[in-house]
Structure formats: structure tokens, C-alpha cells
Design brief:
Belongs to the DegT/DnrJ/EryC1 family. Its EC number is 2.6.1.92. InterPro entries: DegT/StrS_aminotransferase, PseC, PyrdxlP-dep_Trfase, PyrdxlP-dep_Trfase_major, PyrdxlP-dep_Trfase_small. One of its GO terms (molecular function) is transaminase activity. By secondary structure, this protein is of the alpha/beta class. About 40% of the residues lie in helices and about 15% in strands. The chain contains 13 helices and 14 strands.
Length: about 375
Amino acid sequence: MLPYGRQSIDETDVEAAVAALRSDWLTTGPEVERFEAAVAARAGVPHAVSVTSGTAALHVAYAATGVGPGDEVVTTPLTFVATAAAAALQGATVVFADVDPGTGNLDPRAAEAAVTERTRVVTGVDYAGVPVDAAAFRDLADRKGLLFLEDAAHSIGSTLDGRPVGSLADLTTYSFFPTKNLTTAEGGAVVTADDALAARARSFKNHGLVRDRAAQRYPDEGPWHQEVHAFGLNYRLPDVLAAVGTSQLARLDAFVARRAEVKAAYDEAFRDLDEVELPVRPEGAAPAWHLYPLRVPADRRRAIFESLRAQGVGVQVNYIPAYWHPVFEDLGYRRGQCPVAEGYYRREISLPMFPGLTDADVERVVDATRHALATAR
């Protein structure tokens, strides 16, 4: 089975992991500092806080904003559930707004219509690696006194108008899951240019521990002393995984370039098919193309999906609208509230997309997809 996503590991990654394993550090140590510096440089901001997953990055980011009970977070339903769940875990109320029909990204106009006096954060998701309309969300956040959070789980390596994703929002979160644009096996990061947000993020991911004597309430307790002033969790990324991440970052541009080649090949292969809709690239955006979301006839999507799987092509669907999950249903959310997102979901199939795809693999996917479209009913 040809998977829809796969990590790209080479000997430099293996050597980096082995060197870290042979060092004096397994958990937080010099490799974490090195990785965070490299991620911050790639994002074009001063601060990167590494964590154990993309979900942890979202949780840490929401904690840094201070959202809690009584606050609202406006976001998209066309995302993995963690984008909304992490806000809900902080006690905030999640308000879903509809998406742009072309990109699948949160529609700035729909987001603005969903803003109330209780809204504290607007969270856009770079669906498939396409950056959100950052200028529109920046304007919305500034006018309404909100924080703009960009869930860039799909888009490290993407740029918008020449600026890297990571430098566009108040806070940006990355995921380093194996299928993402680079991997640390499991991992993520929060990046920001804001010193205060970075400090709160770093504290929350390390139990809320205060080791700076100048900030402690009881600094004379002893040289061993540390305090917790606000609750946090242990989301520390180990040194061995950070070492892999630094190695991977050195090849990110090559990964992004190959993804672009695969995307272009798919586009060319399917351009003559009236029954499908190809992924959209907005003007000024250079996406890293984490996914290739092909939209097919909704009434045949399942048959096409099953045909492709039967042909050994491991397609996926991204994503069930977040509020369709029973956990949100049980909170009173109902289907139908974001019809554009639901329509996008009903037609979407993610074709294989990763740097290790060979030209022969791409031809195999194209042939299988055209066969499925012609025969699956």
C-alpha cells in the first residue's frame, strides 16, 4: 500500500539521534536549545518553544494567551480536532466559522461575523499547507483587540508574500508528526515575536516552574528551590528528538521543493477532468503542500476512496468537520452550521503527498485515480 504520507529519514538523521543518545542528555539539553534556535530562525521570529506534539503546541499557545472560561475562540471546523479541543481544554468556548470555498482556510469575513465581545483569539489553520489570509486576520485582530493564532501544522516551509509562516501571527504552532513537512518523530513548537507570550508558553510547557530567584516568592529557601506560580504541564521535547529535528530542518527546502513537483504533476494530470476540483494557491502564497486535497463528486466519494484503496493507493480524507465529533455534539454543536466546510469535506480525498514519492509512484497514483473516477459508482 502506497501511503498518503510518510516520513523522510536519512543517515544524517540517524547519526544525529545516535550522537544525542551517546551524549549526557536525553531530555532537555543542548540539542533542544539548538533546535529551538533553528526553528526560530526559520520562522523569522526571536522565540521558538519546542514541545512534544502539534497538539501540545496548540495547548501551550492557548495557555499563553490566557483564554479560559467565559472567553471565546473563533476557528475553522475544517481541521484536525486538536485545533478546537485545545481551546476547549482551557475552558474557552469554541465558535466555528465557515471556510473559503477555494482554499478550505478560515474565511476572514465569516470569522469577523462570529466575533463577539467575549472573543479573545481567532485561530486560522493553514489547510494543506496554504497560508491563511494573514493580512485580513491581522487587521481583524487589531481592530477587535484579539490575538491572532496560526495553526501551521501543515505549513512550516510555506511563505506568504515572501514572509515565512511563523512571522505572520501573534503565535504560530507547528507539528512535527512523521507525515508533516519535517519530523522529530513526535513533536511541535510554538513560535512568536512577543516576549511575554513566549515566556508564558515556556513556563506552561515546563510545569509552570519558576527558577529565576528574582521572580520567586521565597527566593531564600535554598539553591535547589523552584516554585510554581501557575499550573503547567510537562510538554518538554527530548534532546534526542530535537537532534533529529535540527537535521531535518537542513533538508526542509528540498522537502518543500519535491512536494511542489508532486503537486504540479497531479495538477497537470487532472486538469482535463471537469468532475474534480484541484487545490488552489492564492496569489502571493508559496505553500509547502502538506496535502493534495482533490475534490471529487460527493455522491461518489466513498466509492472512489474504496477503489483507490483497493488499488493499493492509501488515500485519506482530511477532515471530518470538528463539530461533527460526538464530544462537540454533546456540547450542543449541530451539523449544518458551516455549510461550505461541510461541502468541502464531503468531496475531499487526500492523494499521497510526501518527498519520497518517485515519478513512478506519482504515475501510479494518477492512473489509479483516473481509473477510480471512471469506474467507481
